[in-house]
Model the fold of this input.
Amino acid sequence: MCRFIALFSFLCIFPTAVFSTTLTQHVSHDSKRTGVQLLCGKIGRKLSSVSVKECNALAFDEPRFYSVGGLPILEKHFPATKSHAPKVLFIGGIHGDEYSSVSVTFKWLKTLNKHHSGAYDWHFLPLANPDGLLQSRSSRVNRNKVDLNRNFIPASGFPDPLVHWKKKARERSRYYPGKAPLSEPESQVIHQLIEEYRPDIVVSVHAPHGILDFDGSSLKPPKKLGPLHLRQLGTYPGSLGNYAWFVKRIPVMTIELPHAGIMPSRRDIGRMWTDLVGWVGEKSTIRKEIVLSD
Ligand SMILES: [Zn+2]
Done:
């Protein structure tokens, strides 16, 4: 599949923006930085549309979290300059075999690195499941063979994810939710970020259904994002959409790119980003709306 991605490796490289956040001060600072560089090397070799140089140029925050296999969970925070600015938690690659979800997230990261105005607050996790992506044959699931997007706490009124998997998902291994919610370090990271960062909206990038999905009745979703049109599909117990909206009351936008192994055109990548930022801008009263809806 990477050969497909190689066809679309033309996307431009933006200059490095210098940004750092002091998340932790630790004696192993240098080894953590080396860990990020090693991870960028692996990503660059796996995804032809993301070069090692591009990855390193993003100057990711010092890692705080690690996967089952010991790889850093990359984070990049873009702080707002105003206190009540909308806060967006942005997640790519929760499914390791959806290559484009990682590659496109990297492209949007580069755009933000160049153009971040401080109007909104962004927190990016461009590769939430590094073990799934970076093994020789990439997988949807993590190293423990758990579908991270079924490993969250289910909302009340929804079945237990494991029971649902056995009865409704025909025990297909791709959708295994794990022995218990939040059993996996990668889903724990997202859970912790939701608790600490308290985003106003979560954006999660997937493939290959080619639609825009949205969970959350407190905000009116955009009708489209670039070429993707709104189609609300509902949630599965244990999914991020089910947890974030029905448990935490945080709306979740799910961007389903059309192909897992083929990048959208540069134009469509730009249109999706422009529409997303425009929608966040229109919803600059996001926080107020959420308070009113509670
Ligand atoms: Zn997915």
